[in-house]
Amino acid sequence: MAQSIGARSDGIMKDINKILEGIDHLHPVPKVAEQVMVLARDPKSSMSRIAEIITHDQILTANLLKTCNSSYFSTPKKVDSVQQAIVFMGIDQVVDIIWMSSGAKNFKKKQEGYDLEEGDLWKYSVSSALISRELAEKRNMDNPHLVFTSALLKDIGKVVLSQYVADSFEKINLLVNQYGYSFMEAEKAVIGIDHAELGGMVALKWGYSPRMVEIIRGHHLTDESSGFDLETSIVYLADTLCMMMGVGVGSDGLAYRFRRDVIEKLGFSDRDIQGVMAGFGEKLRKVEELVYA
Predict the structure, then answer these.
(1) CA–CA dist 259, 136 (Å, integer)
(2) Sign of the four-CA dihedral 65, 68, 69, 70
(3) Which residues, in sequence order, are CB contacts of 143 under 8 Å at separation 6+?
(4) CB under 8 Å to 105, separation ≥6 — which residues?
(5) How confident is the model over 198-238, as pLDDT tens digits?
(6) pTM > 0.85
(7) Which residue from 172, 150, 157 is spatially nearest to 236, judged by alpha carbons?
(8) Best CA proximity match to 152, nearest among 85, 242, 62
(9) What are the structural domains, with CATH classification, of the chain?
């Protein structure tokens, strides 16, 4: 029965090439965001050089200052320039804010296939990215930008796939509820591709690092036979904590398998996880102000 519903056996698999054409309708993150992230990792780069690159993009500069002055970040005084933003926030925080500002266009729309209202997917993505950064800092990771950005963009495949999921939702739902498929497995069976795989293709087309492509593609940790991967596991755990807190949970939110072993492999205790969730819960309203502004 389950096989008869699958894409290949009943002829309902969508034309993958047509789905991939949807990538061209997305808004790529501006090159300046990538430039700034590279410079932030270069010990030879200066604050003035980074500020100069940012200020060349007026929209990005305006969004950076607006975000810095939001209640979430609570700077000691009003931030009026990129230089001030770097001084008050630190370059690491500024890089992350730039990526947040750059990604909003794609994620803020309603995603019908995943039962997410306008802004919900963006709230979920930003929350996951902020939690990923906190987890990365707890692990003293060398490159927290990588997990932040990967977590922020990990569900870009949903933006492209949403309408196809909506069109096939009954079949996907049947596989999930009656045959024990995860939502992503059901996407793959019915449509021919899942949102994580598609997200990896988007990241590849946009020229992101092979490492980021790999994290986005594997962020649900479906391949239990593969070795432990620190960055992907951090993104997975942040994603899971968001679901547990009910942040941006759509039709697929509870249709994934929880890997408790990931917490143990990352070296976190239950108290650590409870602390992260409690702390973020207190910030959630400020996150909403940040996202819906």
Answers:
(1) 18
(2) positive
(3) 41
(4) 27
(5) 999 999 999 999 999 999 999 998 876 666 899 999 999 99
(6) yes
(7) 150
(8) 242
(9) 2-29+110-292 (1.10.3210.10)
